[in-house]
Amino acid sequence: MKRSISTPTAASAAMVSTEQIADFERQRQGQIMMTTYISSAIREKKQGNPTPYEELIAQLTVSKPEPLTPTKLLQWIQAMSQCISLLDKSCSTLIDAMLQINWIAQDDVFVQNYMSFLGNIVSAHAFYVVPVQSMLVKKLITRHKPSTLENAPAISRERQYDRVHQALKYILDLIPTGPTSLFPLLAAEFPHKRESIHAHITYVKNILRVLEYIPVLRNQILGVVIDRIIQIDVEIQVELEELEDSDTEVVYDWDVPEYAEEDDEDSDSDSDSDSDSDSEALEVTVLNIKDMTRKLDGMLFLVFSYMKGYIDSCQHLNDPSGQPPAPIQELFLVLLSIFMKTILQTFKSRHTQFLLFYCISLSPQFSDYFLGALLQQILDKSQPQVVRVASAAYMSSFVARAKYLDVRQVGMVIQMLGGFALETVEQVDTGSNVMPDAERYAVFYAVVQAMLYIFCFRWKVLTIDGGKSQSNRDDFESAGMILGNMDGASEPSTEAPATRQWHSDLACLQRIVTSRLNPLKICSNNVVKQFARISNSLNFMYIYPILEQNKKIFIHSTSSGAGSDGSGAGSNGQSNGGALPHELETFFPFDPYRLPQSAPFMRGIYQEWEDEDEDEDEDEEDYDEYDEEEEDEEEEAEGDADEDDEEDMDFIGRHNAEDENKDEEDETLMNQSVLAMSISPSPAHFLVQGMTSGLSKRK
């Protein structure tokens, strides 16, 4: 008979197995005791003795002097899961204590047990859904700290956010109505615009990730994100304008030393103190603008990235008919809805609208839909005038800047705008008291300005150059457009090609600009001057005589008693003390996009300014001569009324000579080059980088 030999390895294995069994039994007994204790504490609380219940809450409080070990805390969680049916509304404080546990920084076993507890509690008691969701939403923005519990593992921040999303998805899978209660919590927890860049970037990244597993909230979540982006966007523009208004000279003079040497020891100390105080306040404002700009850039980058990822994921759904995939159509309609309800109503929005600009580039059908929606706003007399004017501004800027528009679409816009403007002229131009009125006919002037602006950018697709551009000719003819020579006013440029043919719907411009409504007087001075230069150079129209005459015309302010229909507008007349020149306020929402992190999304779809290259030198000389004469006469007639406009509104074609010295420009002046084809109201909108650069040099 063979004797079995007990090896050390076998003995050790038997010992380990015995210890594991004993440990498991101890845990089981401990859990039974905890479950009994919890049940007893809840029962005694309902009977009027809250002491055991309060002691139980104290056990779970992480901030107590000696917090529980992860193992002990896990036992309490497992025991609590055995008492789910007892945890009614009267136990809300106990549930609150459970929700305060720093569970996302624990090991996987702990996390799985905690998630299981959350699922059990919301499944059994619907009134705990909102508190549980609220706890999870708060963790989408919190800068998570390492666990204070003993022997807790080191978990990366990204891993912790992964766990929050995993738990949130798990809860929503259990509760079909969960998204309804979740969205208000997501909106309420959005960081205030004054909170840190980190807080905004973290939250936007996480809230967009929620859309991966709750697509039903796409409309609402994109809406709240874009709304917060607009708030920051507008805040930047407001602060820039206030900065410019308070001390324009300081904005442009960043090389002046912050503290000049004192030549006189008896210099006025109060004056120095005031100067230092102003300088400090200015620096704070500039740094705040820089901070908000980085915040805006980062948030837009995340939304652009989300859109690109979503679009790429839908490419396999391409429709053979050429229609965009249904999910992309849905995304476009969501963004268009947000635009119509929010962005269009916000006059000072500078960058937010480019989200829609990017989405529209995906399909010509989106362009048609967007242009149609804007046109409907322009023509709808029930809409507020400010919305109709803004719609015209958006249409002109979009057509000018959207590189993906084709000849048909540009021609369609010119046709529609021209038809509206011509109809207005024919309705009112025969009256005996018709005169320019920027308030009463604001929509008309906005439409005419849109046509002039579009022409400056898109004249190449509106012309056929003596048959040289046969592809363009084919495009026009296939679109059903009639071609014909345009007769300019007197004295067109004699050097321009005589064979150039223009889109037939441009013919109405001559009738419009020579009407008694005199749009060349009311439209933006910079737009008008640039149109005059280009149209003369191309032998399209010669309007300098009208501009010369308009310099002598001044329009009285509309009386305060004027009705909403615009009655009571002033009349034409020579300049006097009570007369103020009126000009349509300029707003071109798709001016150059200069936020560095998110700007790459505009590559290939954004049309930069391209000057016409024919007879440019000769006409530029003629234009400059006219411009100098105009400035001299305006100074005599109006004093300094238009001085700021002349200095600040550097317009489209004046950058040709500057291009030669572009590499030699000082860094602080870099942003002024952005104005090359920007005619928005203020150059301060583009000086953030220059200002912050100057401040860094002065430190």
Question: Would you mind describing this structure in some detail?
Answer:
- The chain is mostly helical and 699 residues long.
- Helices cover 57% and strands 2% of the residues.
- It is built from 27 helices and five strands.
- The chain has helices at residues 8-46, 51-60, 70-81, 92-99, 108-124, 129-138, 157-174, 178-188, 197-210, 218-246, 248-252, 269-313, 326-343, 354-360, 364-379, 385-401, 407-428, 442-458, 470-478, 508-513, 519-522, 525-537, 544-550, 616-638, 643-648, 656-660, 688-698; strands at residues 463-465, 483-484, 500-503, 554-555, 572-573.
- It has a three-stranded antiparallel sheet, with helices on one face.
- Helix 18 packs across helix 22 (525-537).
- The N and C termini lie far apart (95 Å).
- The model is unreliable at 248-268, 466-490, 558-581, 614-626 and 633-699 (pLDDT under 50).
Helix and strand layout, with pairings?
Layout: H1 8-46, H2 51-60, H3 70-81, H4 92-99, H5 108-124, H6 129-138, H7 157-174, H8 178-188, H9 197-210, H10 218-246, H11 248-252, H12 269-313, H13 326-343, H14 354-360, H15 364-379, H16 385-401, H17 407-428, H18 442-458, E1 463-465, H19 470-478, E2 483-484, E3 500-503, H20 508-513, H21 519-522, H22 525-537, H23 544-550, E4 554-555, E5 572-573, H24 616-638, H25 643-648, H26 656-660, H27 688-698
Antiparallel strand pairs: 1-3, 2-3, 4-5
Helix pairs in contact: 1-2, 1-3, 2-4, 3-5, 5-7, 6-7, 6-8, 9-12, 10-12, 10-13, 12-27, 13-14, 15-16, 15-17, 16-18, 17-18, 18-22, 22-24
